[in-house]
Specification:
Organism: Devosia chinhatensis
Number of strands: 3
Structural class: alpha+beta
Strand order of the largest sheet: 1-2-3
Strand content: 35-45%
Region (Disordered): 1-22
Protein name: DUF1508 domain-containing protein
Helix content: 25-40%
Length: 64
């Protein structure tokens, strides 16, 4: 049904605790090159959702 993406998300905790946790995320291609990076503050699932949205936008741009 869905196709496999060659992009992957890397998420690292940079500091803080609980709702003040600082996360750094990167969207990488299959070769490990960073296509987009950013940071988010909050819980892990919220930081991952931010990175997932960036990944989906990159996939949509490459699909056009």
């Amino acid at each position: 049904m869905s196709e496999q993406s060659s992009l992957q998300i890397k998420l690292r905790r940079k500091g803080g605790v609980g709702p003040n946790t600082n996360w750094h995320w990167e969207v990488q291609d299959a070769a490990g090159a960073v296509l987009k990076s950013g940071s988010a503050v909050g819980e892990e699932h919220k930081a991952f959702a931010t990175a997932r949205i960036a990944k989906e936008k990159l996939e949509a741009a490459s699909g056009e």
